[in-house]
Amino acid sequence: MSGLPRLKHRVYSILKVSRKPGDASWNFDVFIIILIVGNVAAMLLESIEPIRLKYSAEFKLFEIFSVTIFSLEYILRIWTANISPAYPSPVKGRLKYALSPLALVDLLAILPFFLPFVGVDLRLLRVLRIFRIFRVFKIARYVTALALMNRVVSQKKEELVLSLIFTLSLLLITSTLMYYIENEAQPENFSSIPETMWWGIATLTTVGYGDIYPVTPLGQFMGGVIAVIGIGLFALPTGILASGFSEELTNRKEKINCCPTCGRPKIQEYEI
Question: Which of 19-23, 33-37, 202-206, 263-267 is most confident?
Answer without folding.
Answer: 33-37
